[in-house]
Each structure stands twice: as C-alpha cells, then as structure tokens.
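Q: My labmate handed me this sequence with no annotations at all. I'd like to see what the chain might look like in three dimensions before we decide whether it's worth expressing. Could you predict it?
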Amino acid sequence: MRLCIRPFELPDAPAVLAAINAVCAERVYLLTDRYVPTPQWEAALHEVEAARHLLLVPVWDGHVIGWCRVFGGTFAKTWHVAEVGIGLLAPYRGQGIGTATMERAIAWARDRGFGKIAADTFASNARARALFRKTGFAETGVRRAQFRIEGQYVDQILVERPL
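A: Here is what I predict for the chain of 163 residues:
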C-alpha cells in the first residue's frame, strides 16, 4: 500500500512544517496563517520519544502528507486530558487517511492512561466535524463568533471523547 502512518522522526520536521504551512495558507482550517512555535510543538519537533506527546505523520509514497499531534495536559489539573489536532494536504483528504490517523492517536492516548481526548474546530469546517463524529467525539460546547475568517464570524466547536 502507498500509505504509511508512523510516529514522527527528526528528519520529518521540514516536511511537517511545510504541510502545516500549506494548510495554514488555505486560511480556513487553522487558527494561524503559518506555523507558530509553541513549547509543545517545539518539544514534539525536537524530542521524538516523550510520554506526554505524540506526533504522527501520514506518509504517501515516501512523502509526508500531514500530521496528527496529541499533546498531554501540562498542568496537574489537566494531566488527564489529551488535546489532538490533525491536518492533511488537500489532495489526500476524503480518502480515510484522517480517520486512520485519528484512530491511531486515540489508541495512543488511551494506552497512555489519559481520561479523555479533546479538540476544537471551526464550525465552518464540516470535514473536521465529520471526522470527529466518525471517531467517537461528541460536540460539547460552542464559543459563538469566536473567530473572524474572511470577513465572517465563525463559531468554535469544542469536541471530546472519553477514553
């Protein structure tokens, strides 16, 4: 098969960043218009093995085509929560790759003893909302008009699933 979903390796970093920037450039799926380093992202890109985070890469014919990150809560009060985020390059969407990648991420979080996995997305992102529903997430909250995208106010949808 042409698809492989595997844990991130250090040489993947430029391709992962390029994928993030490509999805960001679409301006309708992610919060920022380009990769913005955070302590969690920097740890994921520079520490291959860690107990509190996972970075998966779907690879098609040897090329990184997206990412799925799981970041464990960083404070004692959120230690039981894993936050997930996923993105795929446009030509690879709608083929089940996101579902397979998300299922791997969920299994990893469950195996690490997290109590739940959570995420958020734009209300306008029907594809992400369908992926979350398909993989067992429930919509648990809405932040009305939380974002402004291309001149329109867009709600933020909060989703989670128990592990």
